[in-house]
Amino acid sequence: MRARLALTLMFVSFAGAALAGGDSMRDVMARDVNPGALAFWAGGNDPPDNETPAQARLRWAAALKGAQVLQARGRILMAAPYTRTGRWNADAKLMIDMGAAGEAAARAKDAPKAFEIGGRLYDACAGCHQTYVPKRG
Ligand code: HEC
């Protein structure tokens, strides 16, 4: 009974693919990369109506933190057990580079620059997904 449970668990972890410290790719994306990107993109987008200066400061602080998360998670994606063959590391590297450039733009609260970097960041997401998650754009 105990042995069978262990085997089942092993199968599940292989099916989930590339687990490190219990984090599946899905965890890394849904918990870290996606919220980080959304926070960063909010820096380059038009501010919400009637945003106060204090709210703007918070929005930029979140954008900066998001850009840092993208760099940190990009580095993790480039290493075992997440890294894969093909264009994977180039897309992860683009995410790191745009995170670094985005961090500087968020520090400067430069919305047009953040918008431009955000577009190139999207290329990293879309490129990797098109190849490795065929159902997603
Ligand atoms: C180097 C490859 C790579 C890069 C770069 C990448 N992703 Fe992903 N992403 C994946 C893979 C692989 C999955 C599928 C994970 C799974 O379901 O097992 C995924 C899934 C997702 C999901 C779905 C998570 C869920 O709950 O099913 C979201 C959202 C996502 N990515 C957002 C992003 C965003 C936003 C970016 C860019 C800022 C990005 N990803 C960059 C590889 C990547």
In short:
This protein is mainly α and 137 residues long.
Explained architecture:
The protein has 137 residues and is mostly helical. It has a single domain, classed as Four Helix Bundle (Hemerythrin (Met), subunit A). The protein has 5 helices and no strands. It has helices at residues 2-16, 25-44, 53-77, 88-107, 111-132. The longest helix has 25 residues, at 53-77. The relative contact order is 0.13. Bound molecules: heme C. Heme C binds at residues 25-26, 29-30, 33-34, 37, 77, 88, 91-92, 95, 121, 124-125, 128-129, 132-133.
Fill in the keyword field for this structure:
0% strand; mainly alpha; 137 residues; Four Helix Bundle (Hemerythrin (Met), subunit A); binds heme C; elongated; 5 helices
